[in-house]
Structures are given as structure tokens and as C-alpha cells.
Design brief:
4-stranded antiparallel beta sheet
Length: 208
């Protein structure tokens, strides 16, 4: 992240205050952690003086606080529903549709145990495992499974009451835009809240 500059005018006393005596010598730096030698004590709430006559900038003015990293909890409802549906189809001897539904349910059950959406300060990244290892290159469109929020064109969550699918379109993979679809195998409320916070509100009800 870009570091913010401190305004020097914040530390200049107003005419109504007592004038500083002496001269400021040995100016090394006015930014974080670098000491400045003074012949007198500098009076200001944004400075701290030590016993050697140095003062240090401690003001937070202009500094952007980073967002915490958020990982939505896993949600097993979709694979459980699919496996239940496959069991019902099998019970009624509808084996042909039961097989693919059951396989999809097993696949999503496995993925729910390992795949995580990680929302850090600047991007959404797909990671795997409890240690949040990198998921490698995207097998469908190529490139790393990490997309900056600033490249998001639009995103949607179907459906809010029982989220099944999350969609987003970004321009990081290719300038004309790349569409992504993921099954919602995470806590839908947590996913929606962090998407609104990091990527902004959803713009349309259907993908473009």
C-alpha cells in the first residue's frame, strides 16, 4: 500500500502559542521512526520527546488502516441437499439422474472441506486446506486464483435467502472482462457482507 505523507503544517505552532527558542539542528527526517535533534523541547501532541532531546512522529494522520483478512466459514448445505436428493432418486429407482447428482454432491462435499475464499486487504484469493495454501493456476482461464477488488466490474449472489452460486466479472485476467462462477460452499451471509465491503454493492440482478 502507498504510504501517506504527513503534513508539516500540523506541527507549526500558531501565533498565539509561545515561540520556540533556538534553532532546529541536524534535521535527519520528518517521517516515522527517524529522529530529529532539537535544541529545545518541541511542544505538540503529535510528538514524543525522549531524554536525549529527540522527538519522534507518532501521529496517525493520513495513514490508511488495512482491512483484516476474512475467510468465510464453510457451509455444507448444498452438498447435503444434493446427496439427499440423490438418495431420494435412488430410492425411487431413478438411478440415471441419481448418479450424476450424487457425484456432484460428493464433489462439493470434498471441496467444502478444503477450498476457502480469502479476502485480504486488496484482493480475493482462492486457497486450499487448513493452512490456506495457494490453489495454483486456474484450470479454466489460466492465471493465479487471485483477483484485485479494483478490477471487479460486477458481482452477484444467487439467491440471498439460500445462496447457491456466486458470480463476478473482473478485468485483471483479460481487459474485456472475465466471468467466474463458484458454488457457494461458504457461509452465504459472511460472503455477501465481505463482498459488499471489499468489492462494493452489486450493480445488476443478472450477469453481463
Amino acid at each position: 500500500m502507498e504510504s501517506a505523507l504527513l503534513s508539516a503544517s500540523r506541527f507549526i505552532p500558531s501565533p498565539s502559542n509561545r515561540e520556540l527558542g533556538g534553532f532546529v539542528r541536524n534535521f535527519q527526517s520528518s517521517f516515522y521512526g527517524k529522529a530529529v535533534n532539537c535544541s529545545n523541547k518541541f511542544r505538540g501532541r503529535d510528538l514524543r520527546t525522549n531524554h536525549k532531546g529527540h522527538f519522534f512522529v507518532t501521529s496517525r494522520l493520513g495513514r490508511k488502516v488495512k482491512n483484516e483478512t476474512i475467510v468465510p466459514d464453510p457451509d455444507y448445505r448444498i452438498p447435503i441437499v444434493l446427496l439427499g436428493l440423490a438418495g431420494g432418486l435412488g430410492y425411487t429407482n431413478n438411478l440415471l439422474p441419481a448418479a450424476p447428482v450424487g457425484l456432484l454432491g460428493l464433489l462439493l462435499l470434498f471441496q467444502t472441506t478444503r477450498v476457502r475464499f480469502v479476502f485480504d486487504d486488496e484482493a480475493l484469493e482462492v486457497k486450499v486446506g487448513e493452512e490456506l495454501d495457494e490453489s495454483g493456476e486456474n484450470v479454466f482461464v489460466g492465471g493465479k486464483n487471485r483477483w484485485k477488488y479494483s478490477t471487479f466490474v460486477n458481482w452477484e449472489l444467487w439467491w440471498p435467502n439460500f445462496p447457491i452460486l456466486v458470480y463476478f466479472k473482473e478485468t485483471q485476467t483479460k481487459p474485456e472482462g472475465q466471468v467466474h462462477f463458484f458454488p457457494v460452499i461458504f457461509n452465504g451471509k459472511q460472503l455477501y457482507d465481505v463482498m459488499v465491503e471489499r468489492a462494493g454493492p452489486s450493480k445488476t440482478s443478472m450477469p453481463k
